[in-house]
Queue: 3 jobs
Job 1
Amino acid sequence: MTTTTRKRRSLLAAHIADKTVLANGVQMPWFGLGVWRVQEGNEVVDAVKAALRNGYRSIDTAAVYGNEEGVGQAIRESGVDRNELFVTTKVWNADQGYDSTLQAFEESRRKLGLDMIDLYLIHWPVKGKYKETWRALEKLYKDGAVRAIGVSNFHVHHLKDVMDGAEIKPMVDQVEFHPMLAQPELRAFSKENGIQLEAWSPLMQGRLDNPVLLELAGKHGKSPAQIVLRWDLQHGVVTIPKSIQEHRIRENADIFNFELSAADMEAIDALNRNERIGADPDNFNF
């Protein structure tokens, strides 16, 4: 391996334990487990334990997922030191507003059974409420109840609006991000403003039967899912694929022993169609 290659690889996530550094200096794993639509009880407990057994150290949940208690139980039963873990949860739309956000946070903290939340996010940009919600997140951060604060599903104009008059800039924006929705404008704005982008639904809910992805999978001896997750990381985007099956959880994490070339990255970039699987943050009704 040449010096140039070594230097280039050192800039990329090369191990499941590798972390990005947020604007406030907090370290956040590049890779984690998302638990959207994972049922409370044994299903989420088993999935989180499986992830932790296989080296994952970041778990992403939300109040509306209804599984915070199971996530907390799995963490306690896993035997993994709490200081090694990075736990994210989110305030739901119905709880937005200053006082109600503070109350919702305490409920999430109680259900998780954690004194400290690593990252707390505004789940969606609810019109007329998200700036007051952000003010509550700033208080939680200043009070030391959370290590980092951010947003989810915010477009550039939402970020600009919430930053206008804010004391603290969002440290993370968790958004729908995948080859069909590559978000170049948002990526550029986030990089310019020191906001870490994070991908939800990185695997397009299994819609991976694409000739380009299949060709690259064959080239690298990987699955199309592994190609997409590697593409995320090489774009500097934190990724949190969901699975409840241990073999899939293990497979999703097997992406640190290869690298996509510049040509590979460009081929995947060219798949962008600005097509969403989820709701548009400018037009949602939940």
Note: Confidence is low (pLDDT under 50) at residues 1-10.
Job 2
Amino acid sequence: MTKHELIISHIQSLEVGSKISVRQVAKELQVSEGTAYRAIKDAEVKGLVSTIGRVGTIRIEKKHKENIEKLTFAEVVNIVDGTVVGGQKGLHKSLHKFVIGAMELEEMMKYVDKGSLLIVGNRKKAHQLSLQHGAAVLITGGFEPTSEVKKLADTLELPVISSSYDSFTVAALINRAIYDRLIKKEIVMVEDILISITNTHYLYTTSKLADWYQLSEETKHSRYPVVDHKLRIKGMVTSKDILGHPTIILVDKVMTKDPLCVTMKTSVASAAHMMVWEGIELLPVVNDQKVLLGIISRQDVLKALQYTQKQPQMGQTYESLITGHFEEFDEEDDFYIRGDVTPQMINDVGTLSSGALTTIMTEAGHRAIRRGKRGDLVVENLSLYFFKPVQIEQVIEVHPRLLEVSRKFGKVDIEVFHEGTVIAKGIMTAQLIDR
């Protein structure tokens, strides 16, 4: 185990809510402070710790896929640029809802319960009652609680946070963070479809081709990752690689070295693009030290993509926000989409932005190909030419025309019109994936 892995393992073993410092970790594990610092930052990326100004780094509970939309109070502090003024030991806890205290005290408390967060101004009685109901408090306007409230927060281990923002801004910031997590929840990652290392068949660099034949006979597979004695990925070996070679030759003499790999946090869509683009059937999944964690197959990736397309969209992405209001028309074999230029689609001078126009043209090309062929596609190339700016609230029509389509390939000519005049043209090519 490397020093980096040792520190990560140590952090995982700590009790949730524990404070962590670079100096402390370096001293306990007898590593340099630089190594400790890098490992703690990696733990933060992995969701094992959270760093808060004036408080430090604390161990938090790593979120699972099903509750990723929940925020910890530690994350709330960072979102609202807040200061923790009490109850630091409860920062690792998650909130299930927030309540804005803009009503009479008695009515307010009807909505405050255990695990919630009360957002309120300088209302001292509300601070105390909220804590007694098991809820944390976020005080807006830069005010601070009384010393009695601070002591109560420390006793109950419920955070009291102070923010200089007003209640509306604070609520908007928290709501935006939750909304972003709802979108992220729908993005399937490699970790969701991983065939773990315990169920993965692999060979060592010191294995012989005879070992490949034996493993292939047992598993009926023909592709295997190749690792060193520390399980670090070194190559991939397939049936094509071993043909014509004696069985006594070592695997590392015929394998493909430095293969393409993905991490646990790679999206399935990115993995699919890589597999289609490079013609790969199997991808090793590794950590930052290139240690093999498992594999994903092309078949599993395509199944995951098809599954996600059947799920309800939890939040609007950039693409759905831009193209969601465009209507389809099919008039005498002339298929096109039409919509107006909304405020979300313009640049800082009030005309349709090149990014939004590119998104619309790509979507039109997608729809044109899918009308003639069921399946998924990966955009390979997009050549665009812009001729004329279009202002906000003006209507545009996007006419995609199929130039070529086969089992594996599609090409579309795309023209964009405003009041009968061409404002942009483009050619899109894409690789097609059969379902």
Note: The radius of gyration is 28 Å.
Job 3
Amino acid sequence: MSPNKLTLSGNVWIAADLHLGPDNPDTVQDFLQFLHSAQHQAHNLILGGDIFNAWIGDDQIARPAPWLTQVSEALRAFSSCHSLYLMRGNRDFLLGETYAHHVHATLLPDYVVLDTSAGLILMSHGDEYCLDDLAYQRFRYWVRKPWLQKLYLACPLSLRQRIADSARAGSQRGKQYKSTDIMDVQPAAIVAACEAHSVRAMVHGHTHRPAVHDIPGFDSIRRWVLPDWDSESSDGVRRGGYISIEGVQLCLHQWGQEDQCQDTGRYINLASS
């Protein structure tokens, strides 16, 4: 089987952009409850990147903070019964095999074709398709360099944390001067990726624009965008959710909103024909 193809049977739940960390204990607790529900309703769970607000190296698990211990134990509880898959995002691109092994999960590549009861679906974190954000793509290019990651991981944890905090603050400042369109995915890139893998649907996160998106001019392709999670938002609105695949139905579930479900037989299974 290709390393970029994953065959899944049974119900699949997918979540991303959880941004778990010490500064959002309510989000952590919501995620723990989500894992409890998934353990009873899902056969497979995919966490599609930005699981953590920042990941400064797998060696954190040697002396984990209390919140990380809670999360890791809950992930192990799920993976003791079901299949757990982790994907890297732009905030946790240093997530490695050591942590995946620690929670008995499979670490996925940057993209994977899911072979499900609903047909073939292309899955990624999504940041690689934000091609109009040139500054971010330059950043992504460099931080994925193995030699640069090796230098960073050789630094003490305290220094790595300061570097990560500084980079995150710089990213937040930079967003003030970017249009929302620039920070979204490029439709042409989505079409090209779907056509390259002979699929008619993509699931991704990163953009924090949860919805079922059509692509103008390509009615047979749909883009399912995962919600970001935030239970401590300043506006008091609790955000979060996931996508489920059950039978031939894909459903987008968002906290406090009506579910969006579609029978994929109308379009996704074209990829299998």
Note: The longest strand covers residues 218-225.
